[in-house]
């Protein structure tokens, strides 16, 4: 009688073959379970397969018996043999496994269309390749590349967080030589990796006392981080807004504010004129100005920066980039003029006015409507030669510093870019005599509500 089996699976392939075709060519071992073989075993026989009759039989020393088998036994298949049934069984089993795999693939294809899967894979691959190509091209950069495990070690698994922004978090780290660093861990990358390339590509070209130093970076699949010199006093914003109770003990004197304003202007002058290529920052604001232990300012966060030839005064740009409240009018609407280095000058002017007023330029919490937009309020006082009404003015020198910073800033925020001074002229105005400064025309535009523009939606072309 034939035995009925309930399980069949390849056990071993001869010759090291791992594929179906190679296993069939070289031979393989199968195991199965049959039924009712106890009588055969009790009589001293062994269940086996008859190659002639294709039946499972009980083989005894004297003669074969027709009892059914139940023990687990082995059958070796060889191409030279005539075991066609075993071949069919092996093929059926293999195709069943392939069918399961096809079913799984079809399930996921139902959730994600093939076009989406191909697009996602292609986009991710191209982004990774473009960044790697850029890094290889700029291999001589004087900055070190770290692995993500290195980043985790230097930050003690991101234990000490210094700040958070739209780009990701900043953590305090420590290098092997004992030097402290600030590690900016970027969020899951969007777009084509433009922000990461902007940061590495632009800041690695710089070397200036008023530009933060990039000492290293990490690019490992989706893990991206930037390692900067550590700035003990953090960002400028925590020192200038008087309405914040936490800043009560961190107010800066007018002399210090003035030196910070001059230092930022010198940093911008270097970006606009001191490099081999002109670098436009596009995100000058207090949050992106870092202060060292001596309150020396350093411009940071070059994620929105644009590198362009020095001889080009106007660039072509699609979409707005920056932070509302500091964005120049022409960056939002081209009817006001072309986008150029004068756009950074506008942002600088708005920032210095916040340093002077100790408040946001737009403040709806003030009592009088005329004070909501600080540039208009302070312009009227300068125009009428009234008391400035600013906190901390304790001497004539303080008043002159404040007045000089205000006049220069009002020139910087002129609506027409051609009416604004270059940043080099701004440095001259700040360092010159206040008697040589003329009052600017009144800036007639107010800024939009203070929300951050998503830089990932901005595309740039030259």
UniProtKB/TrEMBL annotation:
Every Protein kinase domain range: 156-445
Record key words, sorted: ATP-binding, Glycoprotein, Kinase, Membrane, Nucleotide-binding, Serine/threonine-protein kinase, Signal, Transferase, Transmembrane, Transmembrane helix
UniProt entry tagged with the keyword Ribonucleoprotein: no
Species of provenance: Lithocarpus litseifolius
Gene3D superfamilies named among the record's database cross-references: Phosphorylase Kinase, domain 1, Transferase(Phosphotransferase) domain 1
Protein localization: Membrane
Span list, region Disordered: 443-462
InterPro entries: Kinase-like_dom_sf, LRK10/LRL21-25-like, Prot_kinase_dom, Protein_kinase_ATP_BS, Ser/Thr_kinase_AS, WAK_assoc_C
Protein name: Protein kinase domain-containing protein
Compositionally skewed regions (Polar residues) per UniProt: 448-462
């Amino acid at each position: 009688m034939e035995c009925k089996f309930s399980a069949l699976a390849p056990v071993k392939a001869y010759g090291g073959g791992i594929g179906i075709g190679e296993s069939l060519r070289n031979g393989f071992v199968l195991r199965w379970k049959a039924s009712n073989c106890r009588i055969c075993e009790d009589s001293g026989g062994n269940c086996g397969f008859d190659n002639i009759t294709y039946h499972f039989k009980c083989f005894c020393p004297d003669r074969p018996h027709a009892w059914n088998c139940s023990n687990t036994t082995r059958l070796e298949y060889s191409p030279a043999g005539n075991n066609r049934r075993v071949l069919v069984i092996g093929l059926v089993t293999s195709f069943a496994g392939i069918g399961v795999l096809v079913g799984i693939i079809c399930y996921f294809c139902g959730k994600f269309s093939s076009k989406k899967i191909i697009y996602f894979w292609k986009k991710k691959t191209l982004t990774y390749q473009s960044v790697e190509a850029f890094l290889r091209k700029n291999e001589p950069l004087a900055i070190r590349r770290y692995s993500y495990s290195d980043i985790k070690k230097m930050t003690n698994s991101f234990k000490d967080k210094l700040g958070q922004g739209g780009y990701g978090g900043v953590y305090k780290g420590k290098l092997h030589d004992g030097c402290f660093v600030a590690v900016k861990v970027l969020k899951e990358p969007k777009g084509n990796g433009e922000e990461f390339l902007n940061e590495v590509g632009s800041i690695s070209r710089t070397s200036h006392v008023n530009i933060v130093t990039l000492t290293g970076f990490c690019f490992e699949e989706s893990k991206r981080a930037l390692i900067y010199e550590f700035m003990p006093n953090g960002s400028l914003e925590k020192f200038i807004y008087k309405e914040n109770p936490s800043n009560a003990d961190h107010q800066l004197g007018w002399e210090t504010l003035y030196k910070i304003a001059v230092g930022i202007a010198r940093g911008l002058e270097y970006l606009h004129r001191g490099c081999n290529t002109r670098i436009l920052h596009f995100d000058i604001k207090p949050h992106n100005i870092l202060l060292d232990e001596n309150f020396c300012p350093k411009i940071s966060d070059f994620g929105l920066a644009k590198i362009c030839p020095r001889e080009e005064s106007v660039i072509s740009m699609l979409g707005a980039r920056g932070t509302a409240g500091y964005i120049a009018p022409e960056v939002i609407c081209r009817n006001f003029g072309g986008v150029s280095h004068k756009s950074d000058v506008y942002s600088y002017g708005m920032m210095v006015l916040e340093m002077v007023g100790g408040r946001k330029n737009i403040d709806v919490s003030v009592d009088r409507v005329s004070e909501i937009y600080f540039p208009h309020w302070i312009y009227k006082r300068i125009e009428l030669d009234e008391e400035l009404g600013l906190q901390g003015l304790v001497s004539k020198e303080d008043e002159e510093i404040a007045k000089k910073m205000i006049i220069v800033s009002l020139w910087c925020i002129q609506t027409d870019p051609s009416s604004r001074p270059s940043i080099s002229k701004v440095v001259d105005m700040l360092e010159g005599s206040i008697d040589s400064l003329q009052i600017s025309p009144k800036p007639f535009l107010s800024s939009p509500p203070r929300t951050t523009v998503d830089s990932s939606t901005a595309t740039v072309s030259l």
